[in-house]
Amino acid sequence: EVQLVESGGGLVQAGGSLRLSCAASGFTFDDYAIGWFRQAPGKEREGVSCISSSDGSTYYADSVKGRFTISSDNAKNTVYLQMNSLKPEDTAVYYCAFGTSLVGPLTGWGARNLGQYEYDYWGQGTQVTVSS
Q: What is the pLDDT of residues 25-34, one digit of tens each?
């Protein structure tokens, strides 16, 4: 079974940076997507970004475009989320997720890229807190 372990969360001041990691294991799929989601207290979980294993294509929520960058190291089966220019509203628990239905380049999937129901396996989450 697919296992995902997030790390890299913490406390940072507004304007600062953090890099989250998502280590994946136990999978045999060749074509999949890994996404980052977040959930703030009292709010619904929202998609942040995702990356395709097939061609490295990426997709971002408008709220993080230009500030967050997703990348992958296939040799390590690890996906990263570099978060710059952090804002207090970025405070949330961040989850990575593994999706087997989002195959091929992400450009063809549109908003489904960040639809949580497209993802089958989830990590436990890592807390990110941005102080003002």
A: 998 888 999 9
Q: How far apart are alpha carbons 12 and 94 in whole angstroms? A: 14
Give 121's contacts (C-beta < 8 A, 6+ positions apart): 1, 2, 3, 4, 97, 98
Distant-in-sequence, close-in-space partners of 65: CB < 8 Å, separation ≥ 6: none
Q: Closest Cα partner for 48 from 97, 14, 85?
A: 97
Q: Indicate if the alpha-carbon torsion angle 36, 40, 41, 43 is positive or negative.
A: negative
pLDDT per position as a tens digit, 81-102: 999 999 999 999 999 999 998 8
Cβ contact 67:83 at 8 Å: yes
